[in-house]
Structures are given as C-alpha cells and as structure tokens.
Amino acid sequence: MKTKHFLLLILLFWVTSSIAQKAKTVLITYHSKSGKTALMANAIARGAAIQDDIAVIVKPIEQTTTNDLLKADAIIVGSPVHNANMSSDVLKFIESWPFEGAPLKNKIGAAFVTGGGISSGEELVQVSILHAMLIFGMLVVGGDDWTAPFGAAAITNEAPFDTTMNDAFLLKGQNLGKRVATSLLRWHKK
User: Fold this and answer.
1) Long-range CB contacts (< 8 A, 24+ apart) of 94-100?
2) Cα–Cα distance between 2 and 138 in angstroms, integer?
3) What is the pLDDT of residue 1?
4) What is the mean pLDDT of the chain?
5) What angle do CA 64, 70, 73 make, to 5 degrees?
6) How far apart are CA 92 and CA 124, in angstroms?
7) Cα(159)–Cα(17) distance, integer angstroms
8) Domain boundaries defined on the chain
9) Which residue pairs from 2-11 have beta carbons closer than 8 angstroms and sit at least 24 positions apart in sequence?
10) pTM here?
11) What is the CA radius of gyration of the chain?
12) Mean pLDDT, range 147-170, rounded to an integer
C-alpha cells in the first residue's frame, strides 16, 4: 500500500512540475487601420518565437480580452501615431485593463508604433504606452540597442519610407520580440 502511495506522489509531483514548466506566453496586441502596424506585430512575433518555451499570440486590440491579458506573461502593445498620440482605440483599450488587485503586476511590457513621418511623435507614443504599463506595475523593456530605446518604431509615409514597410523597421520589430522573449525567460528562470 505504501508503494502505491509513493508512486502516486511521484506521479503527482511529475504532473505538477510539468505544468509549472509550461511555455511562457507573449501577447502582441495592436491597432491597425492601414495594416502597417499589423506588419510590425508579425515581425515582433517572429522575433519572440525564436526563443524556446515561448508561446506567441498576435491579436488586434478589438479581439483581445481581459483573459488574454491575465494569461500572458508579457504584453507588447502597438499603435499607429495619431497627432503625436496613441490612437484613441489603443488608449480606450489600455483604460479597460484590470487595475484592482494589480493583476498585471510584474508582467513584462513593451511598445511598438508606426508613424507617418520622421519625428511625427513615435517616441512620444512609445513612452506613453510604457508609462501606462508602469502604472499597472509592469516591468517594461525597450529595444535591443540605443537606436530603439523605447521599443520598435517604423516610418510609413515619408520619403524614402513611403512605398512599403522598410526591412530595417521590421528588423527592429523582430529584435524587440526577441528581447522581450529573452527577458521573459530570464525573469522566470529559477
């Protein structure tokens, strides 16, 4: 009888430890009317997926639920730049996040944006998103080097960047995804 209990305890321990070692989730959520912010979201997803033990979910904000936010270990928010501000849809989305009891505390957060022109407010919007994340107790990360200190940004409607999404911007997005995934694994390392 003791052997059966011992084997049952070992099985229970194995199942519990397997659940504890499940993949960490990176949620990439964004608002995009023209599709350019969605392109950046997908580049970020490619970067985050490079890491082992990372599950990546990419959703427009209108499809992102409170449950998605609560289940995610990292949340990356993207917005187009509207008059040097995040879009009203992104602001409304962030204002809907759960606050009481700090359920987003210690989740990793990051930001990405697409702006029509050079110096049209990309960094202002990134910092606004990061500020909001800090209010919720999140741990924020920027891009992978000094050229992307606040996350990833793309210029989409000013020469010479006015025809298609420039690969350099997509690479910045991919690098942000990789940095978030790497930071997430490091943060949850035991």
Assistant:
1) 94/129, 94/132, 96/66, 97/66, 97/69, 97/136, 98/66, 98/69, 98/70, 99/136
2) 47
3) 55
4) 89
5) 100
6) 17
7) 54
8) 22-187
9) none
10) 0.87
11) 19
12) 89
Long-range residue pairs from 21-24, CB within 8 A, at least 24 positions apart, any chain: 21/53, 23/53, 23/54, 23/55, 24/53, 24/54, 24/55, 24/73, 24/74, 24/181, 24/184, 24/185, 24/188
The arrangement of secondary structure in 22-187, i.e. its CATH architecture, is 3-Layer(aba) Sandwich (3.40)
| pLDDT of 10 | 52
Q: How far is CA 86 from CA 1, 126, 127, 129, in A?
A: 64, 8, 10, 8
Query: Which residue's structure tokens are 């917005």?
Result: 79
Contact between residue 8 and residue 53 where contact means Cβ atoms under 8 Å apart: no
Q: Which amino acid is at 159?
A: A
Identity of residue 130: L
Measured CA distances, 118 to 17, 84, 104, 110, 121 (Å): 49, 11, 33, 21, 8
Structure tokens at 6: 């011992």
For residue 6, give every residue at least 6 positions away whose Cβ sits within 8 Å of its Cβ, in sequence order, or none.
none
